[in-house]
Specification:
single chain; alpha+beta; five-stranded antiparallel β-sheet; 5 helices; binds adenosine monophosphate
Length: 132
């Protein structure tokens, strides 16, 4: 694979029909916890911890590679400021929490719109389950 092909494969074309795009367009409801000009955050529909919030940019970015390479600094800053604010407001910052951004197939990314999971409210255990 050429470097250009590898870079293209790392950032699949944005799918306007993904479920978070529908939430952003108001076609599907969400349990909103935060919104600003660049960011929307809502509770995960299938929470894996007492606190499980998804933080997404309003811009069309498929994954963290796309966001990191292509989002303007104001959008990148807004997303991480939102993560920090939400972690404080949800009361998980002091005891600790985990942020996860699953990416593409090996990362187990199900929804192809970049999102950061905020998980907390209990000890979360090891980062990964051993497979050996
Ligand atoms: P990922 O595997 O990182 O792509 O995570 C996608 C997450 O989106 C999962 O944790 C799902 O439970 C969550 N999810 C899917 N549909 C919705 C929805 N309509 N509202 C809130 N969360 C959702």
């Amino acid at each position: 694979m050429t470097q250009q092909a590898a870079e293209t494969a790392a950032i699949p074309a944005y799918d306007d029909n993904n479920i978070f795009a529908k939430i952003l367009r108001g076609e599907i409801p969400c349990d909103k916890v935060y919104e600003d000009d660049h960011v929307l955050a809502f509770n995960d529909i299938s929470p894996q911890a007492p606190v499980h919030v998804l933080v997404i940019p309003k811009g069309k970015y498929t994954n963290v590679t796309d966001f990191g390479e292509n989002a303007p600094p104001a959008e990148v800053a807004a997303l991480w400021r939102a993560v920090a604010q939400i972690s404080q407001e949800k009361g998980v910052a002091a005891d600790g929490f985990r942020t996860i951004a699953n990416t593409n197939a090996n990362g187990g990314q199900e929804v192809p719109h970049f999102h950061v999971h905020i998980l907390g409210g209990r000890p979360l255990g090891p980062m990964l389950t051993r497979r050996d």
